[in-house]
Each structure stands twice: as structure tokens, then as C-alpha cells.
Automatic annotation (TrEMBL):
GO cellular component: plasma membrane
Location in the cell: Cell inner membrane; Membrane
Principal location listed in the UniProt entry: membrane
PANTHER family the UniProt entry points to: PEPTIDOGLYCAN D,D-TRANSPEPTIDASE, PEPTIDOGLYCAN D,D-TRANSPEPTIDASE FTSI
Penicillin-binding protein transpeptidase domain ranges (all copies): 261-556
InterPro entries associated with the record: Beta-lactam/transpept, Beta-lactam/transpept-like, FtsI_transpept, PBP_dimer, PBP_dimer_sf, PCN-bd_Tpept
Annotated membrane topology: Single-pass membrane protein
Active site: S308
A GO molecular-function descriptor: penicillin binding
Protein name per its UniProtKB record: Peptidoglycan D,D-transpeptidase FtsI
Domain of life: Bacteria
Length: 587
């Protein structure tokens, strides 16, 4: 018998010891092999995930440690007036930024020196430097290049400069609501800066570089994409006329005690806007304390009941439809429609069409309005742009409001004849008056300089336009509501408006006073529309003939002479003294 552990010598071989305990079970070998196979598979899957699926991400993370794509800012296009005078220009400035992820600890004395230069708190700068997760952070934007040079001299690794552009507005508050302004990032926020932002902004370029860990550029690794500068925008406005309108509107607002005012000057032959002013206003170069009331472009965005400046339009439509005749006489004594009384402040038992306009008779205008079919009258309002945006391309323009004709009651149609129960903007009223200056065609409004007039839309016949235009001259003559609108050497045609304001659905003792007119009346060159919101009641300032008409006259007189327009009344035109009796109109 062989003992366990004994040496066994096989036949013809070397003796060996038998030991049963050194042999592994077959199941254990399989388990070990499976574990090793799973681990190898996991490593292979991870390798595939990193090398194939996450390749772009990992390469991007690697590149982010040393490569940067720098933005090359485009120069924003200039805005000019129609004569090439600059209204908005971009000046180069510098912005200071840092890359905390690439920065080592910055000495306290350098942080303090940087804080003094940038007028910042040292602790705020230190907090930004300490955030190593960030690779880009602005320290201060749009500073003077000379100050940026002082920052560079501090030689703080990771702190760099970036060239930007700051917008400057030479005309300041005079052009504020038209030109608008840009934000810190150079994008338009208001006015033409906003509406033509894409044209003005251009296209930024880029530059791909390699930087060392201290933020210094080592080399360019990709071709530079050059920035494409913005285009120059030539507005239709004339800076000289704009200043004139601003000066006179400001003086008129102070004289009338109004809380706000607006004025627009149109080229009567092309529809181009030569001036547009709103008060109160603001300085776009200093916007630290802006108020909403200062930013409102009231001429385009404010809706109001126009009052009697509506009368020439309604009368023109009735005349064009052969419902009235020039010599026709109307009973203008007060009368009632249901419970409502329609009356005039003056007592003229009978007036012809010219007299209704000259005396601003609500009774006469309401009776003429009632001769029109409701649908016809509504369609006329629609044709001249009431209830629709004027499509000037200007942001925030109001559409006004005209209710559907099927809902009109007789009293509502009657009051629309003298501008109540309908809301418009001042720019809409100025545009509507182009039918009188262009032989019945209404022109589109433009805020950009035109090479040639845009086609108009025929509203009334040329004969009707000339007839009503001639009648409107009487408004500015003795016995009319606006003798203060006269201009020496020129025939002036226009219409006053005095309307109560609606608040909470009810009329209150607050007024909107206005005047819209044109000159020379025989061959119109300019249309001027003036509006005051809530003028004071002292000395009759609530009436358009007292508050708005004198502003119109001063702007029209200087504007015509500035543009070299020949007088059409060299010998028989007379200016009347300021104390000429006022023909008041019913509100």
C-alpha cells in the first residue's frame, strides 16, 4: 500500500509526490475567467465610449485649456440725417476681462491697484478671481483706451482687454425718440436703432488663438474671419428742422403749461418725415435715470380723440360723394339726437361749408357726417389709415381705433364728424392731410431718405382736394379759429382741434389741443401737426388755436425759409396781433 505523501517514482521516469489539494475545481476556473472577461469587456466599452462617443467633448475640453476663439467686433453703422449730418456714431472703447481658470493667486496690492483704476471694490474683484470655474468674466466694460492702457501696465496674468464700440448721439435729447439708443452689448433698444438693428449691426468676425496658462496669446491657429461693418442709415429727418421743431415745441409747452407735447413735420410732396419731436424727452448719452414718460414716442404711440381736425376729412368725403355742395347752407343751431345735445359755443344760425370749417361748427360737421352711409364712412376712415398701423417700420406705432360700422348709433356717427368716438395718433392725422396736399392722393410715411416719392393711394378727387384746401385757408384768416397760425408771405391752410380726454370710459375736464396745417396753401411744401396733452386753462390755452397754432406758425415760417420755398402771398398776406379775438370751438 502506498502512503499519502510518499514519493512515487513512475516507471522509467523521475519520482514525484502526489498532492490532491493543489488541484483547482473546474467551476472555480470558470468563475475567474468570467470575472476577467467582464473586466476586460468593461475596459473595452469604456475605451470605445471615450474614444468614439465622447471624442468631440474630450477634445473640446482639452482645447479649452489652451485655445480660445476671440470675437472681433464689427463697427456699428452710422445714422445720419438727410444731409449726412451724424446722428449716431460708434467710438472705440476697451473692456477689461479676466480668465480666473487660467490665473494663479494675484497679489493683494495688484488687486487694490486694479480696483482704483476701474473704480471697483477690491473684494468684488477678488471674488471674481477666486471663481476658478469661470474662463471669462468682465471686470469693467467700455472704458477709455487711456485707462485700459493703465490696466495693461499692471501686468496681471489672466487680465486682458477687449476692443468694443460705444454709441454716441451728437444731437442728444433733440433726436432721442426717433434715433433711439443701443444697450451695453451694442444692440438696438429703441427707435431706429431697434427697427434697423440688423442693418446697422453688421456681422462680428472671429480669431482662433492658442494661449498659455497665463492667458498670453502664443500663436494664431486659424485664419481670421474679418468683421463686416454695419451699413450707414440715412434718415429722412433734417437736423435743422428737427432743432427748430424742438425749440418751438418746448417754448409752446412751457407757455401752455401742458404736461406733454408732440410735433411732426412732413414733406407734403413725398411723405418723408423731416422732423419728429416729443416732450418730455431724455438724453440717450446719459440714461442712468430714465423715466417711461420720457421715452414715449407720443407722435406715433399715443392714441387720442382728435377733435375738430377731423372735420375737413369728413366734409371732403361728403363733398366727393356729391352729398353736399360748396355753396350749400346748413342750419347750425343746436339740436338733439335722442337725449344728446349737439351745440356750438358760437351762435351762427346758418353756415355754408367754408363757414363750418372756419368757425369749427360741431353742429354743421355732425349733420354732414350723418349724410354718409355708415359703411361708406367706416371704409373712408379705413382707407386713410385710421384703425390700422401706418406701417412706417417704427417700433411701437399705434393703430388707433375705429369701431365696426354695424355697431354705430346715430349719435356716435354724428360725433365722429367732429372727431369724437374715434382714436388716432398724431402721425396718422398728419398723413391723412396729405390727401389735401397731393390732389386727393394719400402718401405713405417714410423715416428714411427717399430717392423718389413712393406711390400714393387715391382717396378723393383732385377737384375735391383743391376745393377743401381753399376752404381751409379761411380757418387762419380773421374770423377763423386759428389766425395765430398765419405765416407772413404765405397762404396757410389748416384746422384746429380741441377735444376732451377719456379716462375710465368717461370724459373729464382735461383736454388735448392740436393744429394740423400746410403751406404754401397754393402749392403745399410742408405739413406740420402739433399736439399738446392737458394744456392749462389759463388764457384759453386749452384751445388749439391758442396753444398749438402759434407753434405751427413759427415752425412753418422758419422751415419754409430754411428750405428756400418761394412765398405765394407776397403782398396781400397780413399777420394779425396776438390779441385778435379768438373764435372758440365746442369740445
Amino acid at each position: 500500500m502506498t502512503r499519502v505523501g510518499a514519493i512515487h517514482t513512475p516507471r522509467g521516469g523521475i519520482p514525484r509526490r502526489q498532492n490532491q489539494s493543489l488541484r483547482l475545481p473546474a467551476s472555480r476556473v470558470k468563475i475567474v475567467g468570467c470575472v476577467l472577461g467582464v473586466l476586460f469587456g468593461a475596459l473595452l466599452a469604456r475605451a470605445i465610449y471615450l474614444q468614439v462617443i465622447k471624442q468631440d467633448f474630450l477634445q473640446g475640453q482639452g482645447s479649452a485649456r489652451y485655445s480660445r476663439t476671440l470675437t472681433l467686433e464689427a463697427t456699428r453703422g452710422m445714422i445720419t440725417d438727410r444731409n449726412g449730418e451724424p446722428l449716431a456714431i460708434s467710438t472705440p472703447v476697451q473692456s477689461i476681462w479676466a480668465s480666473p481658470a487660467d490665473m494663479d493667486a494675484v497679489p493683494v496690492e495688484k488687486i487694490n491697484a486694479l480696483a482704483r483704476l476701474l473704480d471697483l471694490k477690491p473684494e468684488d474683484i477678488a471674488r471674481k478671481f477666486a471663481d476658478k470655474r469661470r474662463e471669462f468674466v468682465y471686470l469693467k466694460r467700455q472704458i477709455r483706451p487711456e485707462l485700459a492702457d493703465e490696466v495693461v501696465k499692471l501686468a496681471i496674468p489672466g487680465v486682458s482687454t477687449q476692443r468694443e464700440y460705444r454709441r454716441y448721439y451728437p444731437a442728444g435729447e433733440i433726436m432721442a425718440q426717433v434715433v433711439g439708443y443701443t444697450g451695453m452689448d451694442g444692440r438696438g433698444q429703441e427707435g431706429m436703432e431697434l427697427s434697423r438693428d440688423k442693418m446697422l449691426a453688421g456681422h462680428a468676425g472671429s480669431r482662433h488663438v492658442i494661449k498659455d496658462r497665463r492667458g498670453h496669446i502664443v500663436e494664431d491657429v486659424a485664419a481670421i474671419e474679418r468683421p463686416r461693418d454695419g451699413q450707414t442709415l440715412a434718415l429722412s429727418l433734417d437736423r435743422r428742422v428737427q432743432y427748430l421743431a424742438y425749440r418751438e415745441l418746448k417754448a409752446g409747452m412751457e407757455a401752455s403749461g401742458a404736461k406733454a407735447g408732440g410735433i411732426v413735420v412732413l414733406d407734403a410732396q413725398t411723405g418723408e418725415t423731416l422732423a419728429l419731436v416729443n416732450l418730455p424727452t431724455y438724453n440717450p448719452n446719459n440714461r442712468w435715470d430714465l423715466k417711461p414718460a420720457e421715452m414715449r414716442n407720443r407722435v406715433l404711440s399715443d392714441q387720442y380723440e382728435p377733435g375738430s381736425i377731423m372735420k375737413p376729412l369728413v366734409i371732403a368725403k361728403a363733398f366727393d360723394d356729391h352729398l353736399i355742395r360748396a355753396e350749400q347752407v346748413f342750419d347750425t343751431r343746436s339740436y338733439t339726437i335722442g337725449p344728446a345735445l349737439i351745440k356750438d359755443t358760437h351762435l351762427y344760425p346758418e353756415l355754408d361749408i367754408g363757414g363750418i370749417l372756419q368757425k369749427s361748427s360741431n353742429v354743421g360737421a355732425s349733420k354732414i357726417a350723418l349724410l354718409l352711409q355708415q359703411k361708406t364712412m367706416w371704409q373712408f376712415f379705413n382707407d386713410i389709415g385710421f384703425g390700422r398701423r401706418p406701417q412706417t417700420g417704427f417700433p411701437g406705432e399705434a393703430a388707433g381705433h375705429v369701431r365696426p360700422w354695424k355697431t354705430w348709433r346715430p349719435i356716435e356717427q354724428a360725433t365722429m364728424g367732429y372727431g369724437h368716438g374715434i382714436s388716432v395718433s398724431l402721425i396718422q392725422m398728419a398723413r391723412a392731410y396729405t390727401v389735401f396736399t397731393n390732389d386727393g392722393e394719400m402718401l405713405p410715411i417714410s423715416f428714411t431718405k427717399l430717392d423718389a416719392p413712393l406711390p400714393g393711394k387715391s382717396i378723393i378727387s383732385a377737384q375735391t382736394a383743391r376745393t377743401i384746401r381753399h376752404m381751409m385757408i379761411k380757418v387762419t384768416e380773421p374770423g377763423g379759429t386759428a389766425p395765430r397760425a398765419q405765416v407772413l408771405g404765405y397762404h396757410v391752410a389748416g384746422k384746429t382741434g380741441t377735444a376732451l380726454k377719456l379716462e375710465g370710459g368717461r370724459y373729464v375736464k382735461k383736454y388735448v389741443a392740436s393744429f394740423v396745417g400746410f403751406a404754401p396753401a397754393t402749392r403745399p411744401r410742408l405739413i406740420v401737426a402739433v399736439m399738446f396733452d392737458e394744456p392749462g386753462n389759463e388764457r384759453g390755452m386749452i384751445y388749439g388755436g391758442i396753444s398749438a397754432a402759434p407753434v405751427f406758425a413759427k415752425v412753418m415760417a422758419d422751415g419754409l425759409r430754411m428750405l428756400g420755398v418761394e412765398p405765394d402771398a407776397p403782398t396781400n398776406n397780413t399777420l394779425f396781433p396776438a390779441d385778435v379775438p379768438l373764435v372758440k370751438e365746442e369740445t
